[in-house]
């Protein structure tokens, strides 16, 4: 039986899961490939820490060059994360004719325009199922199962940390800071959660999904990104009163020659399928012109689920090698030469309803001043809540608008916040109702 050799670069949490799969399902992997799939080398800066599994010490090394230059290794799994040295290592492996499997969404979102053409030129695969949605097979579904469809929208809950925090805030009426602190204690949030809670991790993933779904290349910097750190339990409660749930949503839409690509807290109707995705679960909802709406959901992170996606890519490449086929499916679903050029819609041109919360002095005439400025900026009010909740001398005023232009809303809020009746910076949350 032929042997296909695999090198693992990065022996952290996900790398440990990959080794577990090699150990526990070795015979199954070989059966499904029709060749022996062998883990030949594991490279990490730390090869002494106990990972909780027994590993042949002969597999362990700190010498990355021995892996990248070895003529014996067919596939390199990159799990070190970050931008550098991951970028340099991946490019070197590609130049040496090695196929790449990665879970590194940040790397591909920022350097995919360099890595993917290099792989195409070298005739090797770069697969990244685990980079978006952990164990959810979204990338494969888009590239293969839905290849006959023109996908017009992709919506996603793509960060389990944020979804967990928002779910607990809704269930317990707890503050953002309290839930975040507890999530860190339980291991659901990193010690430095900035990439998660400020939407950066989600935007990395959306860059890949938009590129795949719309047959183009979306730069990470083109994606409007806003996190959940300003959301309060009060906003979640008001959303419920209006019939919405609050999610950190990744939104990609394709209309003509224009792409929408944005990440921000979003109110979605409570009966909408994405509104029902709670806790650490992720979900990706696609709309194809022939298949209609399709939603995939599952664990978006974690050792086992992510390692499963990584190894699924390894098996796909190994099958190609066994069949003598190279780079059967392009990394973005179509050859680089066939990628279309689209403009990304400026966020200021977005038209949608808005949730607006003001914290104002509890005195006569406040609402008249606020509504007057909104009207001056072409913003009409659909409904309002002014609860009898007094915090010192301030009271929250909550408005839901009809469709409005983002530029107008921002200008209106800037003017309103200059009023001496306003006690805190006003908050706006976008409402998404055209979901397919």
Descriptive overview:
This protein is α/β, with parallel strands linked by helices. The chain folds into three domains: about 5-135 and about 305-340, Rossmann fold (3-Layer(aba) Sandwich); about 140-300, Dihydrodipicolinate Reductase, domain 2, CATH 3.30.360.10; about 350-430, Alpha-Beta Plaits (2-Layer Sandwich), CATH 3.30.70.260. The protein is built from 14 helices and 19 strands. It has helices at about 15-25, 25-35, 65-70, 85-95, 105-120, 140-145, 160-170, 175-185, 195, 200-215, 235-240, 305-325, 365-375, 405-415; strands spanning about 5-10, 35-45, 60, 75-80, 100, 125, 150-155, 225, 245-255, 260-270, 280-290, 290-300, 345, 350, 355-360, 380-385, 395-400, 405, 425-430. Strands 7, 8, 9, 10, 11, 12, 13, 15, 16, 17 and 19 form an eleven-stranded mixed β-sheet that branches. It has a six-stranded parallel β-sheet with strand order 3-2-1-4-5-6, sandwiched between helices. The protein has a two-stranded antiparallel ribbon with strand order 14-18. The radius of gyration is 24 Å and the shape is elongated. The termini are far apart. The mean pLDDT is about 95.
């Amino acid at each position: 039986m032929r042997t296909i050799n695999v090198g693992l670069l990065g022996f952290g949490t996900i790398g440990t899961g990959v080794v577990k799969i090699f150990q526990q399902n070795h015979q199954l992997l070989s059966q499904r490939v029709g060749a022996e799939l062998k883990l030949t080398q594991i490279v990490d800066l730390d090869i002494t820490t106990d990972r909780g599994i027994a590993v042949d010490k002969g597999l362990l090394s700190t010498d990355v060059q021995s892996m990248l230059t070895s003529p014996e290794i067919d596939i390199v799994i990159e799990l070190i994360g970050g931008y550098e040295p991951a970028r340099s290592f991946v490019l070197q492996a590609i130049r040496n004719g090695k196929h790449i499997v990665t879970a590194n969404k940040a790397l591909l979102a920022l350097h995919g325009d360099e890595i993917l053409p290099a792989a195409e030129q070298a005739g090797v695969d770069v697969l990244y199922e685990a980079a978006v949605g952990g164990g959810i097979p979204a990338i494969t579904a888009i590239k293969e199962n839905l290849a006959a469809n023109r996908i017009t929208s992709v919506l996603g809950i793509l960060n389990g940390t944020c979804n967990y925090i928002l779910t607990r805030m809704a269930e317990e009426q707890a503050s953002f800071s309290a839930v975040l602190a507890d999530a860190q204690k339980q291991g659901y949030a990193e010690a430095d959660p900035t990439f998660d809670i400020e939407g950066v991790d989600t935007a990395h993933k959306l860059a890949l999904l938009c590129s795949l779904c719309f047959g183009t290349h979306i730069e990470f910097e083109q994606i409007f990104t806003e996190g959940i750190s300003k959301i309060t339990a009060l906003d979640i409660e008001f959303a419920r009163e209006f019939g919405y749930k609050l999610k950190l949503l990744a939104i990609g839409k394709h209309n003509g020659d224009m792409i929408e690509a944005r990440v921000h807290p979003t109110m979605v109707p409570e009966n909408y399928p994405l509104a029902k995705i709670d806790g650490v679960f992720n979900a990706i909802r696609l709309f194809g012109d022939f298949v209609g709406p399709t939603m995939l959901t599952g664990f978006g992170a974690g050792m086992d689920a992510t390692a499963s996606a990584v190894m699924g890519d390894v098996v796909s490449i190994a099958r190609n090698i066994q069949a003598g086929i190279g780079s059967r499916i392009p990394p973005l679903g179509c050859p680089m030469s066939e990628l279309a050029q689209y403009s990304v819609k400026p966020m200021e041109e977005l038209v949608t309803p808005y949730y607006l919360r003001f914290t104002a002095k509890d005195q006569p005439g406040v609402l008249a001043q606020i509504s007057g400025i909104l009207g001056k900026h072409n913003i009409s009010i659909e409904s309002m809540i002014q609860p009898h909740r007094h915090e010192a001398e301030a009271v929250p005023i909550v408005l839901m608008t009809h469709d409005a232009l983002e530029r107008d809303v921002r200008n209106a809020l800037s003017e309103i916040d200059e009023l001496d009746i306003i006690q805190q910076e006003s908050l706006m949350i976008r409402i998404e109702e055209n979901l397919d």
